[in-house]
Design goal:
A hairpin with a 2-residue loop joins strand 3 and strand 4. The chain has about 300 residues and is of the alpha/beta class. The protein is globular. Strands 1-2-3-4-5-6-7 form a 7-stranded mixed sheet. It binds adenosine monophosphate (AMP) and manganese (II) ion (3 copies). One manganese (II) ion (MN) binds next to loops.
């Protein structure tokens, strides 16, 4: 048994999903429902990473414990960088850390005013009642965002689905877009690191940055203490996974993996459907005790222990 590693069959794929949303932000399921869905799909290591909010953490953690799925506290922080909105996922954060709690509250605070301005812009484009309509889709009025407006526009028959909304509304140059100043990169990283967490640059292929600007972002992210990047995620196509695998190696970043689940029927990928991290990368969970437990259990079962 003590030399099980040498004799064990190749480990089965370890399904870590470290990016997801509940109705605490812009997902449609409760935190416990999200955990149950991840667990049912075979996810072994899970994080709920609501936008700028840790309010779902306790419920998710309790449900994860009940089901025996490894759980780490997470959050997705909205950041403004170089005129672009960038998302940073904080993983294994201490959810009561004062600087993080205060920083997230400050980051959220502009959302109400922004939503009212978005509704005014939509009204000018002929869509009335969008503020109230978006709020109806938001379980948490403190966290009303573009996804809630998108669901309202679909409900009104203005667009066929949420993706069509994000092509024709709510983005720069289209009706309903309102520029907004989120947290700075330095502040977001400070809050995450102060809370004992690891920072991962979320869905890097999504940003409208050319190669040079993206490298500058990664340099600054690393200089601020960021150590990980999402390589496999819901919004990365295969070629983008390869591209960011190479970038992770080149910049010596740990690799993260997460579906960015928002609700049944609203995602490109469901829990349990993401490909494995490409070989040769160091997973962000490589030294986490939560993941070690799972590995140990896998080794045990692989060697019949
Ligand atoms: P907000 O934080 O209010 O600006 O809203 C950002 C959210 O909008 C993201 O977290 C996604 O859930 C959603 N979103 C942004 N772009 C798209 C897109 N192209 N397709 C679907 N959802 C999107
Ligand atoms: Mn979202
Ligand atoms: Mn995001
Ligand atoms: Mn997300």
């Amino acid at each position: 048994m003590t030399h099980g590693r040498a004799t064990a069959a190749p480990l089965p794929h370890f399904d870590a999903d470290l990016h997801s949303h509940s109705c605490v932000s812009d997902g449609t399921l409760t935190p416990a429902e999200v955990v149950r869905r991840a667990h049912a799909a075979g996810v072994r290591l899970f994080s709920l990473t609501d936008h700028d909010h840790l309010g779902g953490t306790a419920e998710a953690r309790d449900e994860a414990q009940r089901l025996g799925i490894a759980f780490v506290c997470g959050v997705e922080v909205s950041v403004s960088w170089g005129g672009e909105t960038v998302h940073v996922v904080g993983l294994r954060v201490e959810p009561d850390a004062p600087a993080l709690v205060r920083g997230l509250a400050a980051t959220r605070s502009g959302r109400d005013e922004r939503a009212r301005a978005m509704a005014r812009e939509l009204a000018r484009a002929g869509v009335a009642g969008a503020f109230e309509g978006a709020l109806r889709h938001a379980s948490n009025p403190a966290l009303v965002g573009r996804t809630h407006f998108a669901r309202f526009l679909v409900e009104q028959g203005v667009c066929a689905d949420v993706r069509e909304v994000f092509r024709n509304f709510l983005v720069e140059g289209k009706p309903g877009f309102v520029p907004h100043r989120w947290a700075s990169l330095g502040d977001a990283l400070d809050w995450i690191l102060d809370a004992g967490g690891v920072a991962a640059l979320a869905h890097p292929a999504r940003y409208r940055l050319d190669a040079a600007a993206l490298e500058t972002l990664i340099d600054e992210f690393r200089a601020c203490g960021g150590t990980a990047i999402e390589v496999v995620c819901g919004s990365h196509a295969r070629d983008e996974q390869r591209r960011f695998a190479a970038i992770a190696s080149r910049f010596r970043l740990l690799a993260s993996r997460g579906s960015d689940f928002h609700g049944p029927g609203e995602n490109r990928v469901e829990f349990g459907q993401l490909p494995a991290l490409p070989d040769g990368l160091v997973p962000v969970w490589h030294d986490w005790p939560e993941a070690d437990c799972e590995r140990a259990a896998q080794v045990a079962s692989a060697i019949g222990g």
